[in-house]
Specification:
about 200 residues; mainly beta; Lipocalin; nine-stranded antiparallel beta sheet; YceI family protein; TTHA0802/YceI-like_sf; signal; Lipid/polyisoprenoid-bd_YceI
């Protein structure tokens, strides 16, 4: 009986080793930060602001042409307003908002990708101000003629209050009247990567 159990265990170990030894290795593509972009838009009762944030780095991994993992890091000290409003940029970097001095990086890590081909749904962990939340959004993956791949998520909706950013939030401060900023802001991400 002991011999039979030992044989079964040995067979299981060999089988698992064989599985992992021949599992296809993911192809990792490095994000070109000079060709990739992050845009943002935030709204208040009386209008909106939009701009950009620079990427520090990123990568995308594929099994064949199926996106399997990856992520990116954003440099929060580079927040820019499209209208070049220096006061707004300074405020967005301050502790009221993104606390860029203490938290200079925000990052996203892919945890799951559903569907395959050009249109996918991505779920992952977004970390802002040291707080991590799971988010899901649609994205497109396009293979380019120059051997690069472009992954684009045109509109990712983020609730800032889940990351401790409560400045002029009507859901937190009920007495603001019309002088509030919406809790949700959106970002658009375009990652161009090459093997």
């Amino acid at each position: 009986m002991k011999l039979k159990i030992s044989s079964i265990l040995l067979l299981a170990v060999v089988a698992s080793f064989t599985f992992f030894a021949f599992a296809p290795k993911a192809d990792v593509y490095t994000v070109d930060v000079t060709k990739s972009t992050i845009t943002w838009e935030g709204k208040k009762f009386s209008g909106s602001h939009n701009g950009t944030v620079s990427l520090t780095s990123g990568s995308l991994a594929f099994n064949g042409k199926k996106l399997t993992e990856g992520g990116f890091i954003a440099n929060m000290t580079t927040i820019k307003d499209a209208d070049k409003n220096g006061g707004l940029e300074k405020h967005l970097k301050a502790d009221d908002f993104f606390g860029a001095e203490k938290f200079p990086a925000a990052n996203f890590v892919i945890k799951k990708v559903t569907n395959s081909g050009a249109n996918v749904n991505v779920t992952g962990d977004l970390t802002i101000k040291g707080v991590t939340q799971s988010i899901t959004f649609p994205a497109t993956v396009v293979w380019n003629a120059d051997q690069t791949v472009t992954a684009t998520a045109e509109k990712i909706t983020i609730d800032r209050t889940k990351f401790g950013i409560q400045f002029k939030s009507k859901s937190v401060f009920s007495s603001l009247g019309d002088n509030f900023i919406y809790d949700e802001f959106t970002i658009g991400v375009k990652l161009v990567a090459k093997k």
